[in-house]
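Why do we care about 3D structure at all? Because function follows from shape, and shape follows, mostly, from sequence. That is the central idea of this module. The next example makes it concrete: a single protein chain, its amino acid sequence, and then its structure expressed as tokens.
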Amino acid sequence: MTRISAPARTLRAFILAAAVGFAAGAIVSPAQAEPVRAATPAFVSDRLSVEVIGQGPDVVLIPGFASSREVWRPLARRLAATHRVHLVQMAGFAGEAWAHGDGAFVQPVVDELARYAATLNRPAVIGHSMGGLSGLMLAQQHPDAVGRVMSVDSLPFFSAMFGPQVTPQTARPFADQAAAGILNADDADFRVQQERTAMGMMRDEAGRAAMVEWSMASDRQAMASAIREVMTTDARPGLAAMTTPVWAVYASDPDGGAPAAMADALWARPAGRDAEARRRRPALHHDRPAPAAGRPGGSVPERRGLIAAQAAGAFSRRSSVTSPALAGVPSNSPA
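And the structure:
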């Protein structure tokens, strides 16, 4: 069997990559007004629930592995001034009920996201980590249902971090190992694992505590199914044929995340299909995106993208890498 190295690094890059919102101010002051909740027909699903706030063009926010929708709360509050924001919570994560035992996780979630998106007007979909992969799969399988996608700190094939020779088949033993580790740890050991992971992913103490509690409140069978499937899902073959604009924003540093060159290659379209990728540094700890050059305030998609990119980059001193080949972003657009 092909030897695959660095499983711990790969898992660290994926598990609990949930620090987006808290660094941008997810611990909300009581004085901060809650946006008006939109009156929409209830969406009934045993795979996900959706909270809707604000009015305007539709934006769907999907959290990552073992994460709460609260990770997106600061961004949702800002967007709700001009958009109708749909905060997704996946079943089995962060205390949301799970009724599927060791059954499939990812594809049923994508199916339900498609069913929900069909009730909207081609929404923009922003997903973090596993949520980014889900949004990408949604756009690949249902291109008419999605207007555009932003993938934050995600990859089209997470297990490619084991090495360029890896396939979903050769990643299976490591996926099974990761799932078994989740299922077999007792609560005390599992909490220690999550605390160690959170220390490496988040600088804010309150944010780290929330990440750990979300993980502890998640269903272990749901987590095991999810990580097994994500580690053996390769969405790269569908990239070349995609017609939905995708903006991939991802981080890299010596302690975690995909090396920048590897991430660039994973997101790039095949040769001859404009596979350029650019590295840029995001503005850190900004509450608002900077205006686009020559366009006061930037366009709505640029502002939405910049807010998400800054939220993703604010929790660490990492670089941000975007893939304009997929996004259709002009070369002078800010990142």
